[in-house]
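Components:
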Amino acid sequence: MSDKSMNTPVSKDPLPRERVEWWEERCTHYPERRAVLLPLLHDLQEHVGQLTKEAMVWAARFVGITPVEVYGVATFYWMYDLEERAKFRVAVCHNISCALRGKDRILEVIEEETGLKGGHHIQSKGDWSVRTVECMGACSTAPMMEINGRYYEDLSPEKARQVLQDLAAGKEPDSTTPWDTEIRPTTPETLPALPGDRLAWSYKEEQEAERS
Amino acid sequence: MSPAKKASNNYSWPTRDKQPGHETYLFNRVAEKDSHLLDAARKLGAYRVLEESLEKRKPEEVTGLVKDSGLRGRGGAGFPCGFKWTFMPKPEDPRPRYLAVNADESEPGTCKDRVLIREDPHLLIEGILLACYAMQCRGAYIFIRGEYKNEAMVLQKALQDAYEAGLIGKDILGSGFDCDVQLTRGAGAYICGEETALMEAIEGKRGHPRPKPPFPAGFGLWGQPTTVNNIETLCNVPFIVDKGPDWFKSMGTEKSAGNVLAGISGHVKTPGVFEVPLGITMRELIYGEAYGGGILDDKELLAYLPGGSSSGFLPADTLDTPLTHDDLKDQGSMLGTASVIVLNETADIIQATRIITEFYMDESCGQCSQCREGTSWLSEILLRLEQGRGRADDIDTMLDLCVQMKGKTICVLSDAAAWPIELAIKHFRPAFEKAIASSATAVSSTASPAVGSTEGSEEAVR
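Structure:
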């Protein structure tokens, strides 16, 4: 990304007004505004669909750092997508526990259903993207796959096939992440706001007190 | 075999209802209905110890109880928890103090904290508040790994409920103690489980470990005194404060007191997360009816990792080793996160080592060249051994690389990558020699694959 492109003017907020206000409030809970960056990038990614240049420049201005610092953070963590995201993003764990319990058979099923061979680099076709990832913390219920933030654990090839077919048909397959939580492909990630008046302190108040 | 499901919330529940023959405490509430909700949790005794402590115990008393109990950190290093708390500056120091809570459980094979967060977040919050009270921290910052989206939602809901009930915030339960608890969700990086990288990530930066010293107790989050504790460690605190150090020391062994959450995965009949007293033998953990249930398909045991991927492979003749910090250290391994990964005779030790080494290559933050280059080279050597393109001096090259990688970097990820290879060669040298011998004809004429290229090497371990 060249310097010039990072100077792209951001004409409007990539987030709805109430989300921007919510993030403003979040910033007051930390000594530095930058501390909200990781969750903020998650939120931007869910709203915009991917971390666009504009979104990153906006985030940089919002927390008061340079765009290249935001780019550095966004490229350090694998969960941020700088490319366009597919509708269904499949991540299959290829670490030791899942490998021992047969992740290869799950990858075979995924290849049969989506035509994508899972590998270390993300591959996409149509509605689907597939990649293999490192340990996701479902080792005792291996093998597992994650699709759009939802875990599917203790898989057999048949179960994996059922999940993929159900998703393609617009159904809600049996998942170990309950469907009544807000992690849906179409809705933004929303962590409920904490009630501000109950907080032990707010740095904003503290700074204002110091000034006066 | 599918794990039993909790009727209340339909979450998969990787432990079974079998009654263990020993005292349990960490998991007692977890199996109850709606244990993740504030009302149900309070009926089951959540926040009672906090209430009592704020009323009648001084902060130093809480620290003293934890120190006397001999509780050792459950995040991997096994550092005595109460002792760590005493590193914080004296009360006269005007600087704000923070508690950083490590919920970035990313060690392969480890899934214990996930169960605690998802099923009993109020136990964790109570532990956090007690720790904050003991060290007089003004705030706790929880860093949860990005993959645990569901767990982050459960925990955030629990935090919100606790705020609304006056359990977190200003003047907690009328005691005059103020404490704020904030949750940050990461975005997927193993290195953020390292305490200084964790603090960098909470501050909104790349997860690069900081050089130590300065240690977190002197220069931590935003440059202020900070203590970093693991989820499971903090979950032990309410019980210790309630029942006393002597009760805690009645479980486990002299130098490793208490119960631990042991996750068993890989080639066992009944994988899961179990609460076991420290000092239980590996044999009982892997073969015991109440735990692993024996080797999958009744095969022979080839090797096991006693404490997550960094702990290294141990062979079957070490099965009578007790699960304690010191006994496993004597074996050249470590307790780590007490997450046992079992390999049966169908597994290929070279391939298993390669998978683990590629994990470290992938997760190396890239700051130190020993780690960044070393993990890549080790992966490449292991890959060519696995594919039958080994060279005569590969074993020596790997051991040499391991020596160069240990103790020379900012954090211990580099060491953690070297240990499993050293142990694998120590205990399974014939397998490596066989791989080299069978590929003797292919030496040096074959070009090695590009570093980092893992495609085409995805054959099944079993």
